[in-house]
Amino acid sequence: MIGPLLAIWQADTAFPSGGFAFSNGLEGLAAEIELSEGDLEGVIEGALRRRWATADRVALLQAYERTPDLAAVAALDLEVEAAMVSEPFRTGSRRNGASLLAAHARIGTPYASEWQATVRAGRAPGHLAVAQGVVWRGSGLEREGAALASGYMTISAYATAAVRLGIVGAVAAQATVRRLLPVLAELAASPLPDNIESFSPRLEIAAARHARGDLRLFSN
């Protein structure tokens, strides 16, 4: 029973991973067009299908499999850096990764301090999905639980940002989360691609425009 509990622990928004500071392009998109509840669901589903399932999930599970070979993990992290063309997304991913590593290093999670030292030495950029793979392997999460926790955190991050931005209320946001759970289950069970790739131009363009804004609630 500990496996599901560990996944719940890491997916909990109370865990200090720094994700509250990032909207992943949603704030920029909401500044350009008025988003309905249905629009929000479409945005999140698109992010799941064309970014999380094909990029973040791949990096996470490959890092999970390569741990504790941190040299191999570092090579993967550089692949993630090269594949992430959006500067706001790259910066956000690194900052989230650093926050997650800092928390797990203080907790004493196996491999967390070693991976943190590797990142701080400049031998790896420290992206979030890769950091998740390392510390969740060290924490004892099962592979399936790690994938589900990561995907749920993606949905939850967008839903939470939508509430803070006033796009939807808290109950409508949770209704959106519930409707997307079958999508997450489907994607988490799908075959893992060999290569890391994503296609979310709408969010990436919105994030790039948002980065030049003067008044911002979120970092990206």
From TrEMBL:
Molecular function terms from GO: nickel cation binding
GO cellular component: cytoplasm
UniProtKB keywords: Chaperone, Cytoplasm, Nickel insertion
Localization in the cell: Cytoplasm
Signal sequence extent: none
The keyword Cytoplasm is assigned to this record: yes
Pfam families reported in the protein's UniProt record: UreF (PF01730)
Superkingdom to which the source organism belongs: Bacteria
Main localization, broad class: cytoplasm
Key word Chaperone present: yes
Similarity annotation: Belongs to the UreF family.
Quaternary structure note: UreD, UreF and UreG form a complex that acts as a GTP-hydrolysis-dependent molecular chaperone, activating the urease apoprotein by helping to assemble the nickel containing metallocenter of UreC. The UreE protein probably delivers the nickel.
UniProt name for this protein: Urease accessory protein UreF
